[in-house]
Design brief:
By secondary structure, this protein is an alpha+beta fold. It is built from eight helices and twelve strands. Strands 3, 4, 5, 6 and 12 form a five-stranded mixed sheet that branches. Strands 8-7-9-10-11 form a five-stranded antiparallel sheet. Strands 1-2 form a two-stranded parallel sheet.
Length: 319
Amino acid sequence: MYCPWLKPEHCIASYTTMRGATAPEAQLPAKAIAEIRGILEDTGVAGMPIGVDMVEVSTLFALQAAGIDIRDGQQVMLSAREIKSSDEIALLTTAAAMVDGVYQDITDALRPGVRENEIVALATKRLYEMGSDDVESINAVSGERCNPHPHNFSDRMIRPGEQAFFDIMHSFNGYRTCYYRTFSVGSSTQSQRDAYAKAWEWMEAAISAIKPGVSTDQIARLWPTAQDIGLPDEKTAFGLQFGHGLGLALHERPLISRLSSFDAPLEIRKGMVFALETYCPASDGRSAARLEEELVVTDTGAEIITKFPSRELFVTNPY
């Protein structure tokens, strides 16, 4: 009904188990496989490998039990989405512009006494007012919760002089954002400013190095080790010094990390769109800086599409 470019005969209701909630005795996966096998036979491709990108566990087992050759369709879809068209870049840029505006609203509201969940509510409301089709998640992290860094929000009340950082993930016409900013509330300390300067230094080094032909391991080497930021190994630090593609999914290619990029580097190409994230804990043991920029790879380098100021630590409602 809502996708008129698709043929009706290609839009078939599914036998879903609702992630296993349907009783196994109903044998819905077996019914699904029988229908799938019939379609494969009718179209003359029975016996050929089938690519699957998302599937319920019970259905995967049923496909295997039926002798159908299942292949990893996720990799095919991710490869197809590596390079963005001009239309896709316009949508990703618009999605980022909406978050630019939300951060202005957050700076106006971010003052002592406000709670993390209130900021999340404000941001969610504004995004939907501006035309977001899915506010996927908003992290709001303040005070001692900054270090170590959880990926969620709470009802914690923000106090004077504390740091707070946010990650806004939403989509506009299906195209995603992942966009951190860090603030100090009312005032900042030297420890907070030092951590922010270091996080920005790592960010700037990565952005400056990006251009077509550079590989992801070269970018990852510019970032600190897990031990440099007080963590035991790269597995624990994964997602803190980090780069990931953006598009129809929150995490696409290229993926940049000290955990994986050294073993499997990927060439950066013109038309890729991805986000870079850095994190630096402060010497006070509770504060931390978290930065993220989204960028488009051009002929000569990277164009940043996240425009809210980030070069220096932003103090909200100073006194």
